[in-house]
Amino acid sequence: MATKTKSTERPSGLSAEDAATVIEILQERLNAYNDLHLTLKHVHWNVVGPSFIGVHEMIDPEVDRVRLSADAVAERIATLGGSPRGTVGAITKTRDWADYPLGRALVPDHLAAIDREYDRVIADNRAAMDALEDADLVTQDLLIGQTGALEKFQWFVRAHLETAAK
Amino acid sequence: MATKTKSTERPSGLSAEDAATVIEILQERLNAYNDLHLTLKHVHWNVVGPSFIGVHEMIDPEVDRVRLSADAVAERIATLGGSPRGTVGAITKTRDWADYPLGRALVPDHLAAIDREYDRVIADNRAAMDALEDADLVTQDLLIGQTGALEKFQWFVRAHLETAAK
Amino acid sequence: MATKTKSTERPSGLSAEDAATVIEILQERLNAYNDLHLTLKHVHWNVVGPSFIGVHEMIDPEVDRVRLSADAVAERIATLGGSPRGTVGAITKTRDWADYPLGRALVPDHLAAIDREYDRVIADNRAAMDALEDADLVTQDLLIGQTGALEKFQWFVRAHLETAAK
Amino acid sequence: MATKTKSTERPSGLSAEDAATVIEILQERLNAYNDLHLTLKHVHWNVVGPSFIGVHEMIDPEVDRVRLSADAVAERIATLGGSPRGTVGAITKTRDWADYPLGRALVPDHLAAIDREYDRVIADNRAAMDALEDADLVTQDLLIGQTGALEKFQWFVRAHLETAAK
Amino acid sequence: MATKTKSTERPSGLSAEDAATVIEILQERLNAYNDLHLTLKHVHWNVVGPSFIGVHEMIDPEVDRVRLSADAVAERIATLGGSPRGTVGAITKTRDWADYPLGRALVPDHLAAIDREYDRVIADNRAAMDALEDADLVTQDLLIGQTGALEKFQWFVRAHLETAAK
Amino acid sequence: MATKTKSTERPSGLSAEDAATVIEILQERLNAYNDLHLTLKHVHWNVVGPSFIGVHEMIDPEVDRVRLSADAVAERIATLGGSPRGTVGAITKTRDWADYPLGRALVPDHLAAIDREYDRVIADNRAAMDALEDADLVTQDLLIGQTGALEKFQWFVRAHLETAAK
Amino acid sequence: MATKTKSTERPSGLSAEDAATVIEILQERLNAYNDLHLTLKHVHWNVVGPSFIGVHEMIDPEVDRVRLSADAVAERIATLGGSPRGTVGAITKTRDWADYPLGRALVPDHLAAIDREYDRVIADNRAAMDALEDADLVTQDLLIGQTGALEKFQWFVRAHLETAAK
Amino acid sequence: MATKTKSTERPSGLSAEDAATVIEILQERLNAYNDLHLTLKHVHWNVVGPSFIGVHEMIDPEVDRVRLSADAVAERIATLGGSPRGTVGAITKTRDWADYPLGRALVPDHLAAIDREYDRVIADNRAAMDALEDADLVTQDLLIGQTGALEKFQWFVRAHLETAAK
Amino acid sequence: MATKTKSTERPSGLSAEDAATVIEILQERLNAYNDLHLTLKHVHWNVVGPSFIGVHEMIDPEVDRVRLSADAVAERIATLGGSPRGTVGAITKTRDWADYPLGRALVPDHLAAIDREYDRVIADNRAAMDALEDADLVTQDLLIGQTGALEKFQWFVRAHLETAAK
Amino acid sequence: MATKTKSTERPSGLSAEDAATVIEILQERLNAYNDLHLTLKHVHWNVVGPSFIGVHEMIDPEVDRVRLSADAVAERIATLGGSPRGTVGAITKTRDWADYPLGRALVPDHLAAIDREYDRVIADNRAAMDALEDADLVTQDLLIGQTGALEKFQWFVRAHLETAAK
Amino acid sequence: MATKTKSTERPSGLSAEDAATVIEILQERLNAYNDLHLTLKHVHWNVVGPSFIGVHEMIDPEVDRVRLSADAVAERIATLGGSPRGTVGAITKTRDWADYPLGRALVPDHLAAIDREYDRVIADNRAAMDALEDADLVTQDLLIGQTGALEKFQWFVRAHLETAAK
Amino acid sequence: MATKTKSTERPSGLSAEDAATVIEILQERLNAYNDLHLTLKHVHWNVVGPSFIGVHEMIDPEVDRVRLSADAVAERIATLGGSPRGTVGAITKTRDWADYPLGRALVPDHLAAIDREYDRVIADNRAAMDALEDADLVTQDLLIGQTGALEKFQWFVRAHLETAAK
């Protein structure tokens, strides 16, 4: 029976350098997603105002999607032979953006703040997609799908913010 | 609170030129899909002949798939900051192919006509896929999946048309 | 086995004149419904503003209902021995109303425009119901149910448009 | 955007007089249904005797059906431009029948009392059906279906009350 | 407690003459439906030929529909105070049409034979619908819906029988 | 391609004599089951009395089971190369028992009459099981399962008929 | 066999005085709940304004919850040996609050009025919870859960009413 | 790695004395529940008489509930560090009540006997609830819910036993 | 109506001697199954060790299967005219095997003990199967299916116990 | 704990000789089933012609059934203490029939070829059924059910091949 | 319409002091739960070793439960008029325990570490339960249920850690 | 009607050379997948040892996934105009790897052997992905998704094999 530890193994056909590159990129995405789903839940609880119920309910399926994205990214790290870090400490160690600024606040204020969070996360996702082109098509494909879903939710957010100049 | 109109915004990390290119490509696909699902329903209602029931029922799930593809494409346009056009007038304004030619007709005649519709739609989809390679991977990935599904249905159609060389 | 074409047959107990009358009426309803579900989807994609999500989601089940109504009406035409026309060309050939006027616009503008579309479709449905009284009770019953559902959705639309006289 | 109140609007193709007539008729049906589903629940809780469980369980789906009928009738009033009244005060203001007479009692006594409630409600429904023939076929069709369901439940009730003359 | 037999009671608001008329009409429909669902199952088991599977599977949901129609008609008889007769003997006592003529036979032969059965049943249904106009709208509405469903299935049957005039 | 008719073929490994024997036995079972499910529905509609609802509802799942048994038996006949006869005429041609005797009647009377029907059907099933021991184990196994289910339902029927000798 | 009436019996281990106290408290809760679910449905039908659909749909699951609470409270009364009163007359006999004041009105007006109804019902529920501490822990636990659910819905209502002091 | 056996551990914040007290109480409840669900199944199989089917079917969901209660109680014992005893021998070792007295018997006799079983079990449950007040609120809450469910089923049982003194 | 007690009746076509034999055999199987599902639950609660969760969860569906087998066997006894005994006392009266010996114990110890229980139950089932060959094929078929399921679970148990001789 | 390997153990009450016989028979059935479900999928992909869709879809549920049969047979081998061989090599080692002969071909050609495959598999199954009569009734019962299902599918296949002698 | 901000309102019948106390307690529980579900997912991704799959899958439903507990606690804070803090920053501001210590590690090491996390969370929950006794029974009841669920999961964890002293 | 055979047709916009290249690549993948799902089932049946149940159950969903991958690949071949070969003979004709080596064996031995199978299949999949970049993006996208899923399952397998270096 196998006696050596297998944690450094990676998929056959993928070089050690590529695997290390991908793992590093994905750990950043994992941090961003874990921070994001906590933030979205926080908004879910603190949003108020005349159109409360629609926005309150619109956020929950997005929380689920972001959590599934975090899960997929973390399990991809493990599949590549890495050790995904998912604790609070992992997030705070490298986070270079500020904690979400609002507490209890009205719908349009929260939506505008979420819009800014998504600008940051999506820009980083697109940079990661480019960086993965040569390293690993499987991981790139995973991020392409997740990015498309994030962008669609951002459309929902932005659609609320439009007020025509009539 | 935000006071300016947001309808020209696009995902962070995507240039204005790329966004405009993608929107133009997708509006053509939307027209093609809206025309196609109306046509498929039309066949669903007008096909007759000895193998009626199988073909009648085979078309309905494809109608649903094409409608979902139209929805995904139109929502992608909105996500990119564009305004998708989905009315009858939008289709007729740029349509450069003829209205579906058959009314009540036998199964093999309708299947041969559908086969020709799919030849046109798929060729245009593949050209769009190529054009999107540099503009937006998220949109390209969306069209790749839809094209594969259209091609599979075309196989179903063609499989009925084969008659051994006896 | 049977060698003659059966496409002109109708249900036993229904005269040829009545069948022809009903088919003509239903083809108009089919055109109206096909135009309407495309229009509703178009609004679904283009509506924006502070109460976006509720209205965006309210439209989708109505799209499904109108598509089911179109399907029922078209299959009734076929049942009566007619050939339902469901292509874009069929709609434009006899359409005597303008293409839906709005693109990307705020919620109340779209709702007011939908309200006008429903005024037209429902008035035509009620005229058709009356015309069918003597021709075919089965078809009349079909339209009665569809009209009731359209009117209920119009109530949803109108309820949004009320603003108290302050 | 629209500034006038829309609450007096009605479906296109329906006269103001007919709408007023239908609303008045439906408000009476709403009162009867709201009274009836409370009464049925009351019986559900107070019936006892050797065949308790079958009758206890038979009532619950009928409660649901009557509540759905009340909902459909009230929403039809709103669709016609009226304001349905659904509070306790609305019922007592015009009720011309006595409160349900029994408390805890045996199965056959409750069933006989329910039978009398249904005699009253059904007779009023049938009168309403006739009165709606010229005013609004959509509403009439709604009541026809509800009346058929009430009559079927009354058959269930009456079937228990038969005891052969041995 | 109630001591008299209740089996002759009818819905309040319906005359004894009308109830008797409706019951008589419905007993004929019950016989027709019971004969029909047995016949359809018989065909389900005996049909053979190159397009076997589609036709074999198309029949089963229609069997279920016809059985549900028989159930609804019979329970309506009981609701009106009558005693529905559902045995083999009830069918044979008044049946004025011949037993289904085919055993194991090819698809087009069975479909042509079913087409003739439906001609008879639908013509009788339409006559019953007319006769019920003045007697009982609830029962008429029941038959209208069932007739529409039967006519739709007949379209399915007839669609298989068309063969182009080549 | 195959040109000869295949309707006389049977499963490989089963002799022509055994197949003929089994088909004959199963046609008798099919007649009994078709008669029985019509009878059970007839009782479902005509039973009355203080414990109506429990018995009325107890019969419907048994109707479904008997119909499934008829279907399985008929499809087994076809599998063995025979042509199952499922029409009213097939039943009356060989039926050696009387039509079900009761119309509208009280629960215990109907249950006692059903009990007698089951005595007949089960005794014939058990005789058929014995006769199939040497002819075809597959068919025998089918009947064993159906017989066990019929006997269980008969226990339900009989359990209602017990009245302690106090 | 048991010959005496059992309606005054209560759970073993619960004194007659405690049972009487609990029944009295619960009858008041039943009246409040029955009044409340009628009122909520009334609002469901009469609310209008720009955020109609979200509030219209938010109320229906709360109606279901309140009806389930009424059912649980009434069945607890019966379990304790009492006779729950659920008719319109039962409500009006002891009701010390006014009928719901609004008819067709805008969203914020209805929400503010509902908020006041909940203030009353919740205050009474909390008083009942205290009173039940010594009498019956099972009933107290039932009310604790129901009170928590009512308070959560009131948060939904109140969240809509906040408008920042800008 | 942990090398010592952990079976004596308990939740943090709960004293060893309290844990021991709770475990002892729960083992008695487990014995009572295991005995009760066997008894209820026994009645399910042995009850006969005119209202057989309703009572036969009423018992099965209660069997499931009691089995779930037994499971919850036993797993709570394990959670507290104890070893739940669930065999036949565990029941007989401490059982101080007689085996259920009836075999095949009529409905009212079985219901009266079940009523007595529930009197015993519920009284013991209420005593246990009191004893747990100071020891462990989590366990007490578990028993409160189970006791309420048992009392509700006893109401079902008792409701059948009432026969008015008319 | 029927006045004699029916509890000694049996299926038509089965002799009194055979029925008595089968009932006696099945009562033993019922005792074994009731003992077994209590034992399996006991293990479910008391098993510990490194592979806890898999074994803990593997047992629950088997508990359900054994309970369903007990139910089927007991209802077969009733169907044959017997009175199944399902109480604790019924088990202990004839049980000739010891109570399950283990309390809290490690996975392999419990699995080895379960393996021995299954050896006993399966051997007795196979003896019963043989004894039923001539008495009642329906009952034999029931036991054959149950025995196969028990044997499959025993394979699951045994598969855990293998440790290769390396 | 147990240290010896258990792989040679068998169900109690089954002799070593019988177990060995059954295992050998089942390994042959496993090979036949694994070959058959691969073949059926192969046909599913390669069939073409005018009635393509019905036959294409008819095959998939049969693939599932054959795979479930393979699973049941293999797990029965393990239950009896044997080691089922399920690899490609296991099939080819003893296979005495030719690989399926057709590639892309028309419907009737594939159906005729499948018919021949089923003749072989069913004949072998029936021989196995006979051989198991004395060795193990549990295994025999398993094969009887699988054989009946295979024969029913063969009826579907053959029904397509019939062409009347015109 | 209401113009003042409502965020400081609380349920009627609850004092401002009690509300403030409860909110403070719940914010601590929210922090603990948010930290815990991140930690559990981290373990889900990093656990390895021979019993990997069981433990990997056992954690996911617990993650869902803890997330639902966090949601319930946060929504209770909002219901009481407070503003729940759910971001990473909220956790780190008051957290007085260390980040989870392990990365990729074997099953027993992770389980032992989780066991210690649960010891801390449960002890704090029990202290909160006591502190809520006088402040708010609704909130206390919420925590009682959550604590019981946490303790049950800890039993699962501990059960894996036992290794007999052989 | 079309008379020529269509089997050499391919999607519009794809060259004949590219189609031929893709078909060849996919036939190799089909062989690998068909071999793999047979092998995985073989392991499912033959794995034994202390952690049997978790691994036994972990394999079945992977079997389903691999079978779905085979189906998708084969149908893609047909869509491209090729004829997929799925028989045992197709696998053995080109297979250049040995049959799976183990029979009944312990969990870690089987997992290590599966790990080696996955190394081979994944390396070939990655080579195929590269080769498809220029030939057909639709097919490449299909393989990218399948490869990701295979790699994730391999992580599950490898996670079991780790044993810390203590």
Architecture of chain A, CATH level 2?
A: Up-down Bundle
Quaternary: homododecamer
**Number of separate strands of chain A:** 2
Largest interface: J-L, 32 and 32 residues
Major β-sheet profile of chain A: 2 strands, parallel
> Whole-number average pLDDT of chain A?
93
What is the top-level CATH class of chain A? Mainly Alpha
Under CATH, the homologous superfamily of chain A reads: Ferritin, core subunit, four-helix bundle
Specify the structural class of chain A.
mainly alpha
Q: Name the helicity range of chain A.
A: over 70%
Using only C-alpha atoms, the radius of gyration of chain A works out to 18 Å
* Beta-strand content of chain A: under 5%
SSE series of chain A: HEHHEHH
Q: In DSSP terms, counting alpha (H) and pi (I) runs of 4 or more, how many helices of chain A?
A: 5
As laid out across the biggest beta sheet of chain A, the strand order is 1-2
Low-confidence stretches of chain A: 1-7
Protein name (chains A, B, C, D, E, F, G, H, I, J, K, L): Starvation-inducible DNA-binding protein
Domain Ferritin/DPS (chains A, B, C, D, E, F, G, H, I, J, K, L): 23-163
Keywords (chains A, B, C, D, E, F, G, H, I, J, K, L): DNA-binding
GO molecular function (chains A, B, C, D, E, F, G, H, I, J, K, L): DNA binding; ferric iron binding; oxidoreductase activity, acting on metal ions
